[in-house]
Amino acid sequence: MLLAGAGASLLVADGINPPPTHAANTDFVRVDTTRKSRVLILLIDSWRHETAVDSTIMPTVARLSREGASGKIETVFEGFSIPALRAAFSGSAPTQLMNLVRNFRFRALPIESSFLDASRIGKRSIAIADEPFTQFGSVLERRSPAEQGLDMYGIDRLRPAMALDAYRSGTYDLVLCHFETADWRAHEVGVNSPVYAAAFARADSIVADFSRALRPGDYLLVFGDHGHNERGEHKTGIYIPTHGLFIGPDIKAGVVFPSLPIGDMRVIIDHALGIELRAPALETERLARFLPVETAAATPNDDAMNSGTTSRRPLDYLFFVLFLAAFVAAIRVATAGDHHERLLTPSIAAVAILFVVEVLAQQLLHPAWSLFPFVMAVVGAIAFQSGRSRGELHATSHHVLGAVIVTIALYFVTRFAPSADATSLIRTPVGTANLIPLYIAGSCAKLAILVSITGWRTGRQSWLPLLAAALLTTALAMLEFRVWDYPAVYITAILISALALVKVRTGPWHQLALVALGYSALYFTLRLPLYEYPWVDLFILATLLGTRAAGGPWLDALVITGAFALTSLWLPSGLEWGFLYGLFPAYVIELQVGWFVPAILLKLPLLLLLTFWATNTRPSRRFIALLLTYAGIRLIGVWLVRLGGASGSQVWPLAEQGLYLTTFAIAAVWLAGFGSQSPTTNDQLPITQSQ
Ligand SMILES: [Zn+2]
Fold first, then answer.
1. How close is the Cα of 471 to the center of ligand 1, in Å?
2. d(CA 493, CA 496)
């Protein structure tokens, strides 16, 4: 219900204030009927600009760039083939919140496109391509090589020759070939592998074949749909430019343009077909450097195009008030029946205000800002203080607990690189002097967590629990450091833990199996840089110590902000489904992301669950109320900036976080076991109920 509510509210937020679409004016200024030029297009899927200009991988592209115009092409906010191609051939790139979902649903009606323009003047187009071109409708002929027991790579390999046959036949005025192997290989191996270089060398040889086949007077347009990062990943919200190389009779040779919005491709393609569009290109001046287009008066740029004005419709505000009411109702339902605790105390209010401060810092300073190290310091201070009221014996132990928590918090703070020009907020540890203490600290933290679960104390008779904890720490470290980085290894670890979980139903061994399961699943799905994994152990240890000595809303806030930052905020690419590329072929994920949504959603709150399993606690109603507040601040933020006229790409980061936090809330509600168990209150541990 929570997830459906969040999704519905975003859909309504989309609906009440759609960004004004680019006035894709279909009026032709001029149609040159004498022009008999044909257009040959090679579309290299996921053509990263850096790879395109690397002459060791793509020597033909480097050579041909002296015969034509080339340069960087900006991709669309969604960062996937279908919306990027829609933008390239239609000239418009509206961004909306729920486009991520809509992208995978194809429309039967033809949209405005260069293909439709061509058919309007009686020219024929053919694409040797697959699904991404369904969206352009029947004005575009589509053909694919016969399967003949070939896999996707085998079929893709046959496409260029088929496209050249169609071009040479003279039947078509526009022939397009989609080369997708580049994208799939990039996902599989990342940019530093020889397999990657081979895939793009193959693309380069296709460019060579196409340029040899090009008849005088015809156009060759080579471009990509989006780029990718070092790991070959691309997704909504990561802008990685692609590349374009254009050769033709009236294209100025040797021009390197700075960058073009991908929507300008329609103007270039239409020009090659002999059509001048009335709609001014987004960057007409830049186009005019290599193409004989008339320079129109100043045209709105992409950002201005996508952002509207403040909503003046009363109905929009009514929707917003209804949304707020529904949100407050959700918090009330989640916390209903709790008469033991007042929900609005000064410290809860302080935590809620800090949540807002964090969102502002993420919006204004750096998207990776997190409260959790600072909240951890507060939890440490509370733990330190709490000893005083409890007599001598408690005082010492609480002082030690508090000091350890504060030390971990300070360590986290020193890892921040707050300068504005840093690409990442988190400093990368360099060299063994940095890395060895970090990994030792992380491993010690993990051992301490596992030892505390076994209940082992010095002076006990049996050393078995200590030995078990040490062995499990070693085994988990193997997974953590990706000693054997194969899905089968992680899945085996998950299965063994699950089996142990079923065999032993209660007690410390049960909890140990639960924690092993959580860690294995986390290491399998999270794909953080290795140096960030020790943070996970230190965070869980600090929370564990916190539950011993200090509870309350500050500990709740630590768990919420820490689990969210470590799993959803600090992913290097933000690609939460990156782990799927190790399990399934890239083309399956690329085209059918919808199938994997359950797996993606299930992995998001894993660290939250692991924290509760390791500390042997369950979320309280107050915890759930705070978590809903944390998610709600982002979803309400989406509405506020939407009503203010922001575009989809401007509000997407908040919307994405709000949706992901909704899965956290679902996991917390499930863990709290609402409806199945009557809550009991424990004054010693106000955050939780002991299991
Ligand atoms: Zn891809």
1. 39
2. 5
What's the gap in Å between 587 CA and the centre of ligand 1?
A: 7
181 C-alpha vs ligand 1 centroid, how far in Å? 10
- Asked whether the beta carbons of 213 and 166 are under 8 A apart, the reply is no
**Per-chain residues with Cβ under 5 A from ion ligand 1:** 183, 590
Which uninterrupted H or E stretch holds 246? strand 242-247
**Residue 667: its pLDDT value, please?**
93
Interior CA angle at 617 toward 615 and 620, to 5°? 135
| Distance from Cα 616 to the centre of ligand 1, integer Å | 40
How far is it, in rounded angstroms, from Cα 518 to Cα 476? 11
| pLDDT score recorded for residue 527 | 83
Burial of 298 (0-12, 13-18, 19+ CB in 10 A): exposed
Residue 581 CA, ligand 1 centroid: distance in Å: 10
Residue 255 CA to residue 268 CA, distance in Å, equals 15
CA of 97 to the centre of ligand 1 (A): 20
User: In sequence order, what are the beta bridge partners of 31?
Assistant: 275
Alpha carbon distance 200, 60 (integer Å): 11
Question: Cβ of 436: how many Cβ atoms within 10 Å?
Answer: 11
Distance 73 CA to ligand 1 centre (A): 17
Higher pLDDT: 280 or 629? It is 629
**In the predicted structure, residue 14 carries a pLDDT above the cut 90:** no
Which residues, 6 or more positions from 97, have their beta carbon under 8 angstroms from its beta carbon?
10, 11, 13, 14, 638, 648, 651, 652, 655
Place of tokens 């992913």: 571
452 C-alpha vs ligand 1 centroid, how far in Å? Answer: 44
Q: Half-sphere exposure of 140 toward its Cβ, with a 13 Å CA cutoff?
A: 29
Cα angle 636-640-642, degrees, rounded to a multiple of 5: 115
Share of the chain above pLDDT 70, in %: 86
Fill in the DSSP letter of residue 427: P
**Ligand 1 center from residue 494 Cα (angstroms):** 28
Burial bucket for residue 433 (CB in 10 Å: 0-12, 13-18, 19+): exposed
* Span 316-323, average pLDDT: 87
Q: Which residues on neighbouring strands pair with residue 261, listed in sequence order?
A: 74
* d(CA 100, ligand 1 centre) in Å: 14
C-alpha closest to that of 638 among 302, 436, 221, 359: 359
| Structural domains of the chain, with CATH | 2-14+24-94+108-305 (3.40.720.10), 348-358+365-631 (no CATH)
Residue 480 CB partners (closer than 8 Å, separation 6+): 519, 523, 530, 533
